[in-house]
Amino acid sequence: MSVPDIEHVEHASPTVGGAGNLRIMREHTEPDLAAAERAVADLLRAFGKDPSAEHLAGTPRRVALSYAEMLRSPEFRLTTFPNDEGYDELVLARGIPVQSLCEHHLLPFSGVAHIGYLPGERILGLSKLARVLELFARDLQVQERLTQQVADWLQHHLRPQGVGVVIEAEHLCMSLRGVRAMGARTVTSALHGSLRRDAGSRQEFFALTGGKI
Ligand SMILES: Nc1nc2c(ncn2[C@@H]2O[C@H](COP(=O)(O)OP(=O)(O)OP(=O)(O)O)[C@@H](O)[C@H]2O)c(=O)[nH]1
Ligand SMILES: [Zn+2]
């Protein structure tokens, strides 16, 4: 299991209530926006467009800023709580919107993710499942790696009994161009722990996510 390269900035001590609180951010190289802007102007020229024309004058800057935004994931606090009640059934966030950029064509792919875990000693603030997804989605990606990174990261940091991630997405590189398979959706999944080992848990997970068994 490869644990992605994410910086844990601060390991805050548990609060009185026992909530764990860890500041999470991905290491970023500061983008060279001026260089990106020049490159987009070159791209426009390469296609016979004049980047100095009034209607295109702001475009290189806008494109540079758009990619800077799409490739930077916001930091967040990973809040966990003790699993005092010993809850041991699946916790599943279904239909989380996901947007990312295909590393082959720099075109978006988007769809939904279903992320679930079987709690161990701690449970997670629910919104954090979507935040972990965003941590890895705002990057140049292939869907398989994105799916795996989210599952690996949760398994490593939350230490649950099991983790499952399903992503179902449409890739614009496959629908707008090339094969033009409009509406085709790619489904990927990654499982760890008892969701991988135990046929019953696995079946329940895929039944709830509407996927394969
Ligand atoms: N496995 C995987 N492939 C992807 C993903 N996103 C895009 N691709 C594929 O990456 C491949 C790149 O193939 P190439 O043959 O080098 O590129 P291409 O000539 O533009 O390919 P076509 O899309 O078939 O026209 C394409 O088959 C894409 O569909 C992804 O998330 N996972
Ligand atoms: Zn692509």
Automatic annotation (TrEMBL):
Family listed: Belongs to the GTP cyclohydrolase I family.
Record carries keyword GTP-binding: yes
Annotated pathway: Cofactor biosynthesis; 7,8-dihydroneopterin triphosphate biosynthesis; 7,8-dihydroneopterin triphosphate from GTP: step 1/1
Catalytic EC class: hydrolase
Biased composition annotated in UniProt, kind: Basic and acidic residues: 1-11
Ranges for domain GTP cyclohydrolase I: 37-208
Cellular component terms (Gene Ontology): cytoplasm
MF terms in GO: GTP binding; GTP cyclohydrolase I activity; zinc ion binding
Reactions performed catalytically: GTP + H2O = 7,8-dihydroneopterin 3'-triphosphate + formate + H(+)
Gene3D superfamilies xref list: 1.10.286.10, 3.30.1130.10
Keywords from the UniProt entry: GTP-binding, Hydrolase, Metal-binding, Nucleotide-binding, One-carbon metabolism, Zinc
Binding of Zn(2+), residues: C102, H105, C173
Source species, domain of life: Bacteria
Complex and partners: Homopolymer.
Region (Disordered): 1-21
EC number: 3.5.4.16
Protein known as: GTP cyclohydrolase 1
HAMAP family: FolE (MF_00223)
Gene Ontology BP annotations: one-carbon metabolic process; tetrahydrobiopterin biosynthetic process; tetrahydrofolate biosynthetic process
